[in-house]
């Protein structure tokens, strides 16, 4: 995580902060994501500081549309780049998420960081959960945030929306919503897919992680299909060098019972003892 602040001497700009995060490192550069309106709020492209380091704005979207900005600092920051993942197209997606971000606390406006948790809902296009950037006509999904632990505050703009199931970033926090006691319990996030719209020149290996759906088919003893449903999994591409690319699939962790109970008909002795096995994600 990085803190976005202003290099301006203007006292008002000095109290404006945002959140950003590293997603890519190349040679001696670290690339980061935040919101386009954060860049505007801190005083424009020439005033953006990342952890008090002057940053270059590589690409920026429309604050009323694709509200993203790509920043670059000329050094390798000691932060771990987060993996990005584009969600599959589905009628409706509900994800358990976490959002780590910065905010100003107390009368002295002390800068603090806190991770909040909740749910992100992404609805179908016909439900108008899509933002259309003006004069381009392209669409990117907008997620609705429901915060269950903690609340959104000023400074969380640009914070990553992390899918707890995979650990990958699926969106960028843009705005908080709600009034009075409900303020900060709801918000919006733009899909990470918007990065492709504002930065077409990005390196091809930025999006190594992606989610795909696949059919699971059950057949009877004659090989005839009797049931079909789908699952989804996270994939990524591993570069083995010399032009060899290996397609990998992330296997989630879990717990299951290995072996069979002693009263199972037809069991063999080597199926004992029945015991619980827990596997980590790999």
Report on the structure:
With 282 residues, the chain is mostly beta strands. The protein has three helices and 20 strands. The strands form four sheets. Strands 5-4-1-2-3-7-6 form a seven-stranded antiparallel sheet. The chain has a six-stranded antiparallel barrel with strand order 9-10-12-15-14-13. A four-stranded mixed sheet has the order 8-16-17-18, with no helix packed on it. The chain is elongated and about 80 Å long. The protein starts with a strand and ends with a strand.
Which features characterize this protein?
mainly beta; 7-stranded antiparallel β-sheet; 6-stranded antiparallel beta barrel; 3 helices; 20 strands
Describe the structure concisely.
The chain is mainly beta and about 280 residues long.
Question: Could you give the topology of this structure?
Answer:
Elements: E1 2-6, H1 11-14, E2 18-26, E3 29-34, H2 36-41, E4 48-50, E5 53-54, E6 56-60, E7 69-73, E8 85-86, E9 92-105, E10 110-123, E11 130-132, E12 139-149, E13 160-163, E14 169-177, E15 186-191, H3 194-198, E16 209-219, E17 225-241, E18 244-249, E19 254-258, E20 275-279
Parallel strand pairs: 8-16
Antiparallel strand pairs: 1-2, 1-4, 2-3, 3-7, 4-5, 6-7, 9-10, 9-13, 10-12, 11-12, 12-15, 13-14, 14-15, 16-17, 17-18, 19-20
The number of helical elements comes to 3
Mean pLDDT: 85
**3D shape:** elongated
Give the end-to-end Cα distance, rounded to a whole number of Å.
Answer: 24 Å
Helix content: under 10%
- Radius of gyration (CA) equals 23 Å
- What is the H/E order? EHEEHEEEEEEEEEEEEHEEEEE
* Counted beta strands: 20
Largest sheet: 7 strands, antiparallel
């Amino acid at each position: 995580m990085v803190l976005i602040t202003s290099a301006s001497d203007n006292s008002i700009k000095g109290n404006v902060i945002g959140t950003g995060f590293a997603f890519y490192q190349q040679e001696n550069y670290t690339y980061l994501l935040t919101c386009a309106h954060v860049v505007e709020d801190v005083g424009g492209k020439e005033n953006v500081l990342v952890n008090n380091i002057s940053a270059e704005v590589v690409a920026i979207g429309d604050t009323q549309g694709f509200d993203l900005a790509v920043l670059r600092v000329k050094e390798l920051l000691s932060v771990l780049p987060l993996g990005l993942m584009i969600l599959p197209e589905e009628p409706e997606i509900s994800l358990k998420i976490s959002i780590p971000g910065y905010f100003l606390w107390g009368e002295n406006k002390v800068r603090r960081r806190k991770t909040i948790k909740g749910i992100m809902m992404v609805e179908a296009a016909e439900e108008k959960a899509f933002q259309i950037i003006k004069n381009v006509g392209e669409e990117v999904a907008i997620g609705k945030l429901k915060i269950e632990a903690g609340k959104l505050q000023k400074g969380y703009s640009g914070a990553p929306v992390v899918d707890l199931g995979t650990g990958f970033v699926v969106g960028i926090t843009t705005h908080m919503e709600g009034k009075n006691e409900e303020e900060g319990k709801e918000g919006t996030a733009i899909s990470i897919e918007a990065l492709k719209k504002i930065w077409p020149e990005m390196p091809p290996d930025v999006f190594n992680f992606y989610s795909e759906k696949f059919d699971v088919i059950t057949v009877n003893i004659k090989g005839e299909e009797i049931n079909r449903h789908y699952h989804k999994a996270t994939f990524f591409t591993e570069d083995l060098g010399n032009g060899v690319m290996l397609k990998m699939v992330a296997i989630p962790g879990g717990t299951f019972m290995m072996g069979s109970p002693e009263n199972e008909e037809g069991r063999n002795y080597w199926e004992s003892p029945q015991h619980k096995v827990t596997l980590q994600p790999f």
